[in-house]
Description:
Layout: H1 2-25, H2 29-38, E1 43-50, E2 53-60, E3 63-69, E4 75-81, H3 89-98, E5 103-112, E6 115-124, E7 127-133, E8 139-144
Antiparallel strand pairs: 1-2, 2-3, 3-4, 4-5, 5-6, 6-7, 7-8
Amino acid sequence: MKKTLVTLFALLTIGMTVTLAAGKADLDPKILSAFQKEFSFAKNVKWEEEGNLARVIFSLNDQGITAWYNSDAELITTARNILYNQLPISVMRSLDKQYTGADIFGIVEICRNDETWYQIRADKKGKKLLLKASPSGNIIVLKKIR
Length: 146
């Protein structure tokens, strides 16, 4: 019985290792190396390929982050969910002025090419909007959802 349990445990461990490694198996080692240099303390790392980009979803300091790398192992974009009170004050003031009474949710901070912006969902009187805000507080409507 003891040998059976040890054998079963060994097989499960090998199976889990193969499964966990499968997400990285087809990934260019340059991309893995670039990620490990940039986000050395990342946890719960999951890789996916999206066309010619590699997407990685991970946790860093208990914050969920998504990053995209191109085939040259360059970090293209990062995105993370944030709370309203984590927005720059200028963005909060603009939202308060332009979208008074709106429910604000689904805030994502996006960094790409040394530029940062915020994608925000707003629900005002039944109209659902997808907004883009610059750190300086300029807000544009990207899409009217309903």
